[in-house]
Amino acid sequence: MKMQAEVIREGELEKRSDSLFQLWKKKLVVLTKDSLSLFPDGHKRAKGKELGFGSILKVDCVERTGKSGGWPGRPEPRQEIDFRCPDQSCWNASITMALIDFQNKRAIQDFKSRQEMEQAAGTQERRLARAP
After folding, report:
1. CATH number of the domain at 7-63+77-129, please?
2. CB-based burial of residue 9 (10 Å sphere; 0-12 exposed, 13-18 middle, 19+ buried)?
3. What is the overall mean pLDDT for the chain?
4. Phi, psi at residue 87, to the nearest 5°?
5. Domain regions of the chain by residue span
6. Would you identify the family this protein belongs to, as annotated (predicted)?
7. What is the pLDDT of residue 16?
8. Residue 49 CB partners (closer than 8 Å, separation 6+)
9. What pLDDT, in 10s, does the model give residues 90-112?
10. What is the pLDDT of residue 113?
11. For residue 109, what are the CA distances in angstroms to 13, 52, 53?
12. Which of 60, 69, 101, 115 is most deeply packed, by most CB within 10 A?
């Protein structure tokens, strides 16, 4: 059973569709420490699309005109997803900070794993050097 992640922020954003006309559609967005979840009907009743931070490379602000700010999320190497939000809503900062925190934790875990592997390899080498 999957545990519910702690919600950092929840609210409505607009996402540009992938269709030919690229219309903006309102989505309920839930930000957690590991992902962004998008719900199409503005409610959590429908099954949402989860964008895990493990697959997002970066978040950039791409539009700051009038009453909206927007940015592309990149969940896959060549895929870009455009969002826009009400001015001064700080969504960009919230998502960026959550992504940085996720990436920092992952880098620390990777470093610790490498250290443990190197220590284990060193212990094995010492055992082999002592063997008659």
Report:
1. 2.30.29.30
2. middle
3. 76
4. -60, 145
5. 7-63+77-129
6. Belongs to the PHLDA2 family.
7. 79
8. 37, 38
9. 788 888 899 899 989 999 999 99
10. 92
11. 32, 17, 15
12. 69
For residues 92-110, b (16+ Cβ closer than 10 Å) or e, as one string? bebbbebbeebeeeeeeee
Do 64 and 48 contact (CB within 8 A), yes or no?
no
Q: Which of 110, 84, 107 is nearest to 95 (CA)?
A: 84
Q: Could you tell me the two tokens for 83?
A: 């969002």
The letter for the amino acid at 82 is D
Distance CA 19, CA 16 (A): 9
> Which stretches of the chain score pLDDT less than 70?
1-4, 41-43, 46, 60-80, 86-89, 124-132
SS3 label, residue 49: strand
Q: Are 85 and 94 in contact (CB under 8 A)?
A: no
